[in-house]
Structure formats: structure tokens, C-alpha cells
# Entry
Amino acid sequence: MVQGSRKRRRPRAPIMPGVWSAIAPEPDRAEAIEQYRSRVPVYDLEIAIAEPIRRRAIARLRLKPGETVLDVGCGTGLSFPHLEHYVGQHGAIIGVEQSPDMIAKARARADDRGWTNVTFVNAPAEEAHIPRLADAAVFHFTHDLMQTPAALDNVFRSLKPGARVVATGLKWARWWSPGVNLFVRVAAMRSTTTMAGLDAPWRYLEPHLTGMVLEAAPGGATLPRLRSLQMTENPTPSPIEAVVSPSQILKLVLSALGATAVIGLAVEALQTTAEYGRLIADPLFAGVGIARGDAHTVMVIPGFLGNDHYLETLRGWLGRIGYTPLASGLSRNTGFKREILKHLEHRALAAARTSGAGVSLIGHSLGGVYARAIARRNPTAVREIVTLGSPLRLDNGPVPVPFTAIYSRADRIVRHPRALAADAINVEAGGCHVGMAFNVAVYRAIAAALTASTTARAASCASA
# Structure
């Protein structure tokens, strides 16, 4: 390895990890602070997909009322509500964060909630003066920090003997999972300044442990789990577990698979993960270059065997660009059934009455068939519908409202001729069936459709 001064420009990382971890640069504090300054406005939405991992990690800390916990790299304070739940008002939370912009938002969160037991330390973890010894610590997606031995040493000096520690974050998957690794690469480029250690993110934690156990995780990746097999005599506490799992994020994406999961199309899952990676890296995801909406309600309906969970990304984006997103309220779309239609229709009509401005419907796969049926039955309440890879031949009746049908020739589930409609504006977008819920081109087409409908409605009202 050649030593020397490092260029400011970060080298491009390969999709496959290979030897990348051996040549990647070390964490860069100044670059990280600048990176997170630009992410502050959308950070909470970007990381929302990892909330189940956060909850799971904090639960594993086994916190008790009255205990003190360190939130290392606390960001905007998204872990605070969960930590407060466990330690209570007589416990204490110490948030350590080097980004002034992120910790400012964390302070505002604590002030808004009236949490007086939160102490903030605005400093790099390796330099932070932590005011008291803690019973536990959590590192949630803090890769740069985990690759800084001095930071870990300082944190561990601030923990009581036998303290519990849980860490989560990204990790390269096996070589046969290029889709997962593409996602990891995109996510890492967005949230870290180094890809060193992504093959074994726990490497600097391991010296603090008395043993290590690796556990396989869904999605063809690995869920490394570090566990203290016995209490160490060293006064430095031993972490009980460190969970580092890109496949847990992939698992959230897989919840969108519905019928695809039943058929077992692994390629669909990989492509969906890759499309999600491209989406979060595109400026469109933050609303850049997209016309602002008029705040009217847009209800999003999941596909067959899907639920509202996998459409959170789409709903969050709709809110970001100026609309009022509404979930379907379905625990599972189990097929085209009268009771489901009645439920969705009631929800859409209630939203239309509340707003007084009508409701738009976006349906993914079978959800689009429901959207079409609701619009036909309630043309005065529904402003427009947008279908994403929907089997429209299941319902051939005309729709008396603006209608955009988005399809893909690469769709393996609903072949594109079946996703077209004679009474619709048919828009082609690339990508796979499930990936339409995370596809940049699809999002752009949705924005165009909503904008066109809003403009036409405004012009109609003006002429009247």
C-alpha cells in the first residue's frame, strides 16, 4: 500500500466489495460535517426505512428506568423517543454528535417534547467530554465513528463495567448479492466518508469483546452479531451485541414483493434494491426540480399481498413535494374483494370531504385496479388516478377522471400490454414490477401527472 497525502476527492467504489476496504480512505471529519449539513432537511425521511432496525437495537440494550444511556452519533435525535421510553424521566440520555446542524435539530426535538433529562455533547466522539459514566450505549448507523479507534476508546472509557452496547450499520453482503452491495454502496456514499471496514464493521469493537458470533440474515447477506460470552475482568465494559445488517434494510424492501415473493423471483428483489439506491441518490428524492403540489390529499394503495409499509418511501416523497399523502389503512391487500373496495372507497371519500378539494389515487399493481374502480364510482370526489404496473385488463370500464398508467417493458409480473389502458395517458418507465415503488422515472412521471392535473383544475376554476 502506498502511503501519502490523501486527495480530497473520494475514489469511486466498486459495486462488489473485493479489495475496496483495504484501499478506502480513513474517515474525514470535515467532509462528514459538510455532508450532514446538506442532509439535515431530509435526513429524518431518508433514514426512516431503518426505523425497525433502530427499535430492535434499542430493545436489545435492555434498558431499565433510571439508567444512563449514550446515544453516540445521535444525529437529529431520532433515537430519543425510544430511549426515553425505557429510561424514563429519572434516567438520562447523553447525545454525542459532531455535526452542529444535526445536534441543533436534536436539541429542538428534545425541547419540543419537554425532555429535560437529555444532555448534548457537540464534539467528535474521540474528543467528547462525557459528563458521567453510562450504563449502556447505542451506535445507530455511525460507520465513520465505528472505524475510528480513538472514538471507540473514548466512549468505552465513559461506560460502567458490564455496560451494554449495541451498534447497527451497513455491511458488504456476499459476492453473489450484487443488488444488495449496490444498495450498500449508494447508501454508504450518501452517509459515510469512507468505505473502509464495510467487510467487517465491528473490527475495532472486537478487542473489547470476549467472543464473537456470526449469524446468517435474510437476503443472502450476513448479520454479524458480536456477543460477550462472559464478563471480562478488564474494567472496560464488553458490548453484548453489535448488529450490522444491510439485509435488514433489504428485508423492508422485500416486504413489497407480495406475489413476487411467493413465486420466488430473487432477481426482482435485487433490482428493487438497486432502484431504491438510485432513488435516494437522485436530487428528485429531496424534491429538487419538482413543481410544488397544492397540498391536496393523495392516497396510495399497495399491490397484491402488500401493505402500507413498503409505500412509506413514496408517501414521504409526496409530502416533501407539497401534497398530503394518505395511507390505504390496509394491513394486507389480499386480492380484489368487496370489503376491501368498500374500505378504500370510504377512506378516499372521507379525505375528499375533509379537504374539500378532492383526492388523487395512486395504486401500485392491484392497487391500481382498486383506484380505477373507486374513481369510476365517485368521479366528483376523485381528482385523478395514477396506476403503477397495474393489471388494468381486469377492469376495462372507462374512467371519467384524468388517468395516467405507468408501465415497464421489463415488468415480469404484469406484462406491459396488460398495464396499458385506452382511456389513459400511458407512460413508460424502466425497471421491475416491485421496483416501481422506488423508481426515479416512476416518481418523475407521478409528479408530472399530479402537476398537469392540478394546473388543469386551476385553469378550469379560473375560467368558471
Q: What stands out?
A: Residues 1-24, 211-265 have pLDDT under 50 and may be disordered. The longest strand covers residues 159-168. The first helix runs from residue 20 to 23. The chain has 16 helices and 13 strands.
